[in-house]
Amino acid sequence: MDAVIPFKHDFKFEYEMIEQISPMIRRVVAENPNFFTFYGTNTYILGSGNVALVDPGPDQSKHIEAIVNGLKGEAITHIFVTHSHFDHWPAYLALQKVYGAKTYGYIPDELRQQSSTADGDINDLTNQERFDLTGFIPDVGVRHGDIVTGDGWSVECVFTPGHASNHMCYQLREEKALLSGDHVMGWSTSVISPPSGSMEAYMNSLELMLQRDDNCFWPAHGTGIDEPKPFVRAFIAHRQEREGEIREQMEKGINTIREMVPHIYRDVPEHLYPAAERSTLAAVIYMQKKGVVGCSEEATVNSRLILV
């Protein structure tokens, strides 16, 4: 039986308008819609007075002005970034000039160690690939389980690599509400694109969600998810079924990712095939590690695959 994901495509909002969506959370949507961002990037405001921002969004003047004008009489003291894809962070540069708030996010161990040496400079990147070549480095590095407190609010950091190697979710502890970034969204599954994206890490991060007590998810794109665990279970089942579809195509003699994607993603527009190929590659790499699929070379979308 096909896994049924209860997608939520009904999303009511107004661009450049800060909306109260829970007692302690407000949201403003950036006008950067496309096939990967849905209607745009959600920027979340936590608390009141001295507030935290989660995912400041793209560098768009209207979006930045909406945040600043909507927070008249208030101040941003913390800026949390879920991950380094360009639709999530560039607006912090302008907001930092207004408020002076530091950014918070995951920093890989090698960069963390580099910054701690006497002559190390965390801005002198030696491993840009881990940050998807975007150059975003948070001012404050956080790890899984870290608690960051502010004026009347507190945030738990939840490390969820998979969609990106540096993906971090943040739970507003007072409401047990998880700001889930691109890890779990209501409108679509996430693209997993190696090398920063890892299907193994993504599946492990989904399993982590089942062990938690979050009341709801507020993703970076689209509307919220009121019942997280059934949603997460459906995502896990969907990815497991995708592995079965890859095996099925190989049993039919279709042995490259490029050839099998049109058969597996029959309902997906052709211009999205490159993204589908990346997620399929991530699945194949994971299947290789489990000993299900073999390849005589490093797997690519054109590699000849064999069933083990």
Write up what this structure looks like:
It is a single chain. Helix 6 packs across helix 7. This protein is an alpha/beta fold. It is 28% helix and 19% strand. The longest helix has 24 residues.
Set out the fold topology:
Elements: E1 19-22, E2 25-29, E3 42-46, E4 50-54, H1 61-70, E5 75-80, H2 92-99, E6 102-105, H3 109-116, E7 140-141, E8 147-149, E9 154-159, E10 168-172, E11 177-181, H4 199-210, E12 216-219, H5 228-251, H6 257-264, H7 273-289, E13 293-295, E14 305-307
Parallel strand pairs: 4-5, 5-6, 6-7, 11-12
Antiparallel strand pairs: 1-2, 2-3, 3-4, 8-9, 9-10, 10-11, 13-14
Helix pairs in contact: 4-5, 5-6, 5-7, 6-7
Radius of gyration: 20 Å
Mean pLDDT figure: 91
Question: SSE order in H/E notation?
Answer: EEEEHEHEHEEEEEHEHHHEE
Number of helices: 7
CATH arch. level architecture of the largest domain = 4-Layer Sandwich
Total number of distinct structural domains:
2
Q: What proportion of the residues form beta strands (DSSP E)?
A: 15-25%
Give the CA-CA distance, first to last residue: 25 Å
Q: What is the class of the largest domain in the CATH system?
A: Alpha Beta
Low-confidence stretches: 115-133
User: Shape, please?
Assistant: elongated
